[in-house]
Design brief:
Elements (H helix, E strand, L loop, with lengths): L1 H9 L4 H14 L3 H34 L17 H8 L2 E6 L5 H10 L7 E5 L9 H9 L15 H16 L5 E6 L3 E2 L1 H9 L7 E3 L2 E2 L7 E2 L5 E4 H12 L12 H11 L3 E2 L16 H6 L4 H6 L17 E2 L4 H13 L5 H12 L7
Parallel strand pairs: 1-2, 1-3, 5-9
Antiparallel strand pairs: 3-8, 4-10, 5-8, 6-7
Helix pairs in contact: 1-2, 4-8, 5-13, 7-10
The protein binds 2-acetamido-2-deoxy-beta-D-glucopyranose (6 copies).
One 2-acetamido-2-deoxy-beta-D-glucopyranose (NAG) binds next to loops.
Length: 364
């Protein structure tokens, strides 16, 4: 039970489902007599709830119609003891995932099956395929939430255009519906709950972006495109305004996507926010998880990275947000490890914590 109630708090953006799992767990572990007692109890609780609901509804209507404010209707009854979890639940995230038709059945499908739907809304941003598609490919386009953008130019050389189109589309249609706008690639893995928890502590009215910070090429630096990066509402507004101003120097195509988007934003006074945890460990990761953990960093990373490169347990914050170069198979594996496998006892939990604290060298 302790484990279950912990999970309710941790995975609170999907509170309902988790509570259900926790309850079933609890229920099955009861002996039969207790189950019967529980059943009777449940009936009383149900009746009690119905009466309480009626009372609340009545009070709500009365207080509404009389325009008085002495009864503040509780919006988040389950979490109203903790402001922090409340704000996690109300932090709305729109994920924009760049892909291409040849990846629909592999990378896009894997994201759609795993972390994509954990965003409040996710869109795949793709060009329209001119090649003849297989039946499977045509079928999958009916399942994937593909953003209805028609003017995207195919090809890796036009990634900037794809990303710019994605942000303009998000601004024009959804600026009021979300607090944060994330750009990811189709080989990015995002732990959306951690992203939401991180963003819930930030201010979306600030001209700020978050991601993995490279300190080169763009003044004040840019975020690795593959690790995914986040624009606040205010940043997206400035990006849109710049792109609709014919005088702006923001590039609409060409160059490197992450660099060009950052150049445009920094020109508009949008600054990179601190994207580390309170122990200064990275949360966004531009390489696969094995490479960060083992410390296999390519030479260029040494000069690009704004923060010192760390391996082993220092590689990644406990509330890590993303990894890059994650294959479709590894998207499913990560999802399985993070959401399906659960240590079952508090004793097990303690041994895991001890292991995590140990400084024993990692063998590869
Ligand atoms: C929770 O919110 C209330 C009202 O907004 C505030 O008075 C209180 O200090 C907050 N509690 C915490 C722990 O932040
Ligand atoms: C993509 O192209 C096909 C064939 O040219 C066309 O039938 C379809 O409507 C187009 N879809 C979009 C979203 O533009
Ligand atoms: C494609 O979708 C159609 C209609 O839903 C279905 O009948 C057909 O079996 C699907 N084909 C494949 C190869 O998945
Ligand atoms: C959020 O940022 C805006 C713009 O800088 C500022 O006016 C506002 O006071 C900030 N809100 C909080 C809660 O810090
Ligand atoms: C663009 O520049 C021209 C010439 O400097 C200026 O007259 C015009 O107001 C500018 N337009 C915008 C939208 O800033
Ligand atoms: C406890 C709580 O209020 N949970 C809500 C969090 O947000 C989701 C999606 O908007 C709701 O479905 C939950 O009820």
């Amino acid at each position: 039970m302790m484990e279950c109630s912990e999970r309710v708090v941790l995975i609170n953006s999907h509170g309902d489902r988790t509570i259900c799992i926790a309850f079933n767990h609890h229920w099955n572990s009861f002996p039969l007599s207790e189950r019967y007692f529980s059943f009777v109890q449940k009936r009383f609780i149900t009746i009690g709830l119905a009466i309480t609901s009626l009372t609340l509804i009545t009070i709500f209507y009365i207080s509404n119609s009389s325009n008085s404010n002495y009864f503040d209707f509780p919006k988040f009854q389950l979490y109203n003891t903790n402001n922090y979890t409340q704000s996690i639940n109300t932090t709305r995230i729109c994920c924009l995932i760049l892909t291409t038709p040849k990846n629909f059945l592999t990378r896009a499908k894997a994201i759609h099956d795993t972390w994509g739907p954990l965003c409040d809304r996710h869109f795949f941003i793709t060009e329209n395929s001119s090649e003849s598609n297989s039946v499977e490919q045509i079928n999958i386009t009916r399942e994937l939430p593909i953003a209805p953008i028609t003017n995207i130019i195919p090809g890796y050389d036009h990634l900037t255009q794809k990303s710019v189109s994605a942000f303009l589309f998000a601004y024009q249609n959804y600026i009021n519906d979300f607090d944060w706008f994330v750009k990811a690639d189709d080989d990015t893995f995002i732990i959306v709950e951690n992203l939401r928890a991180f963003l819930s502590k930030q201010n979306t009215s600030e001209p700020v972006t978050f991601g993995y910070n490279f300190k080169v090429i763009v003044p004040k630096g840019y975020h690795s495109g593959g690790a995914s990066y986040v624009l606040s509402k205010e940043s997206l507004r400035r990006f849109y305004t710049a792109h609709t101003n014919p005088n702006s120097s923001c590039r609409k195509d060409g160059g490197a996507e992450d660099v060009e988007v950052a150049k445009c934003l920094r020109n508009e006074g949008v600054y990179p926010g601190k994207s580390l945890d309170d122990q200064n460990r990275e949360l966004f990761h531009p390489l696969p998880f094995h490479d960060h953990f083992r410390g296999s960093f390519p030479d260029w990373m040494l000069s690009y990275a704004e923060n010192p490169l760390e391996a082993k347990y220092g590689c990644c914050g406990d509330q890590t947000i993303s990894f890059h170069y994650v294959s479709p198979e590894d998207q499913y594996l990560m999802h399985f490890l993070l959401y399906k496998i659960r240590p079952i006892s508090p004793i097990h939990r303690r041994s895991i914590d001890r292991f995590a604290r140990s400084t024993a060298p990692v063998t590869s």
